[in-house]
Specification:
The protein is α/β, with parallel strands linked by helices and 415 residues long. It has 16 helices and 13 strands. Helix content is 42%, strand content 13%.
Length: 415
Amino acid sequence: MNIVLVTFGSFGDVNPIVGIAVELKNRGHKVSVATSPYFKTYIEAFGLEFVKLGEESHYLVAVENPDMWNPKKGFELVAREGVLPFMRSVYDILTSYDPKKTIITSSFLCLGARIAQETHNFHLASIHLQPSIIRSSYELPVFPGGQTFPKLPRFVNKLLYKAIDYFVLDKILKTEVNNFRRELKLPPVNCILGEWVHSPEKVIGLFPEWFTPPQPDWPKNTELTGFVCYDGAKKEEELSDEIADFIGEKGQTLVFTPGTAMKYAKDFFEASIEASKKLGKRALLLTKFTSHLPSKLPSNVMHVEYLPFSLVLPKVAALAHHGGIGTSAQALLAGIPQLVMPLNHDQPDNANRLQNLGVASVIYPQKYNAETASKSLDYLLNSPEVLSKCQALKEKIDYKKSLNKTCDILERFAI
């Protein structure tokens, strides 16, 4: 059976898909991962077939644009630069496969996959990493920018979603999507991200029920399989002696990262370095970009471009990060407290869920400074209740079980 997994985004979006692909390959399937060439070397290192979507420059241009993290501009930038330009490419790539011998999985950004399903009857599973992608009128997410609404009647929530679709989401997506559909003699669609984007055959949520309880109005074919906490760490891989010596005994070091695609975190890193100094802790800074780091780091601070979270997080006291779902899941798996500075997209909703679970504190960028960060971290590190909840949730995560359940669902398509 051919299985093609299509995704867009950063390492946080790609890593879980690679984890699923590796397991499917180990089960004897022919597996391909279609995404940006930025990840080509990484994907091929696992013996997976890489399928090119766009150019590496497309990813790099998106990363260079600070509007990616602007709550008012971010979605339109993603749609116009990272979704709509590749809709036809995704469709063309997928329709080159035999639908009788091929299973497709796609993220919500890969609109061409849904269209290929309609025109060629492919078996398609929508895989969603973030709970906020699956709408419910029973429970509103925290929207970009930290926008929240009081508990409202369901009919009001439905009207709110209709307004979001009409004035924002469909307004950006509808024309190009429906023009392409018209060429293929398909009827027009509305509520593109709210309803149409979900495969009518199967929707898989890569998060557990205790993180986001299923809602009555979710697509009826939705299954939650749990976090797939994959980061590419190899068997028997260990931290280098230099990094292990710097981290020292558990409790001495804090990890700070704004995410693999964020290069405008100068204020975050400066405040974090000062906060770690106030707390008498070491600070490990994880970022691929050195432009937003101080030219000279204090002796209690180390910078590393990338480390598999599964190697480093179990050895540190806490993690301060941007609220990406993959990073959040890895910290939950490590059983450590989290300080979240959500920027945009799904991050505010993820942060809110972590805070409600009692394992995290949330500070939005405009209020993140050395004082607020040090106070929040001091609370997280010294609260018996927080530490107890971190350990309790750690015990609930079974990465291998979640991975196997996800792959079992995909294999059933072949029957």
